[in-house]
Amino acid sequence: MKFTTASLAGAMLAGGALAAPRPGLAERLEQRGVFQRQSQPPSKIDNSGEENGVLLKEGSGDSNVQYSNNWAGIVRDKPPASATYSAVSATFTVPNPTATDNSGDMQAASAWVGIDGDTYTKAILQTGIDSYIQNGETSFDAWYEWYPSSAENFDLDLSAGDVIVAMVKSTSPSEGIAIIENKSSGKSVTTTLSAPSSDATLGGQNAEWIVEDFNTGSSQVPLANFGMVTFSGAQAKTDDGDYGVNNAQILDIQQNGKVLADVIVESDTEFSVIYQ
Ligand SMILES: *[C@@H]1O[C@H](CO)[C@@H](O)[C@H](O)[C@H]1NC(C)=O
């Protein structure tokens, strides 16, 4: 995929032309100061007796799967020799969340692309979307984050079913760009980010495409039923060529002994994360 100068310029113009959207649920909570959306590195689960948490995934030959409390998707854990990951992108559809119980409590799920954060734990440069449901009401946010800072929202009036292209790009270990493009309209929003501290620079060691059960403050939001998120056109760029998801690490979300999000790989550039 290409982000042309014309489409970026169009996006900047479009930013000003958009009618002010009704603030999403998370945004309203944020305005009240009770909400700070934040991704976390994956919290891996050691399924004891099961080869240190690395299981052979049923029916998928020799690809191994790791389980984590919060990330499902695919991580490239190592760049090619003497190169680093400098950009990660994919296309996906904003999922329509449904509640998994009758509590009326807020539930959510997030889909994003990022650089670092798995084996390289100091930083994550990432951008993506959140889908929320509370008391039957859904809302959606597009955001960017340089972990360990919290996420900031893009000014974008998202709906379920919107097809977006998400991309992060590092221009140096301490500078990056996040872009969310509306695939239907070709319009995009973009921002530049800086490492929040000199301890949180990028290593370009991991590239990932993730559905996350993220945090607000120190607690994890209960995971909504997000149905299925299909990442297509998955691409990780290095100076030494572009890579897809083949031969990369698969992660499923497991909570309380139950797999809640499972990954099915369709090709080198496409896979789905399915709520169970
Ligand atoms: C994306 O573009 C489509 C078609 O123009 C529009 O209906 C939709 O509202 C747009 N979504 C966002 C988030 O801009």
TrEMBL record:
Bias kind Polar residues: ranges: 36-46
Q: Name one GO molecular function term.
A: glutamic-type endopeptidase activity
Q: What CDD domains would the database entry show?
A: Peptidase_G1
Signal sequence coordinates: 1-19
- Keyword Glycosyltransferase present in the record's keywords: the answer is no
Q: Name one GO biological process term.
A: proteolysis
InterPro entries on file:
ConA-like_dom_sf (IPR013320), Peptidase_G1 (IPR000250), Peptidase_G1_sf (IPR038656)
The record's section on SUPFAM superfamilies has: Concanavalin A-like lectins/glucanases
- Alphabetized Pfam families for the sequence: Peptidase_A4
Q: State the active site.
A: E212 (proton acceptor)
Q: Which UniProt keywords apply?
A: Signal
The yes or no answer to whether the keyword Signal is present is yes
For the region Disordered, give the residue spans: 31-61
Q: What is this protein called?
A: Aspergillopepsin-2
Q: Which organism is it from?
A: Penicillium cinerascens
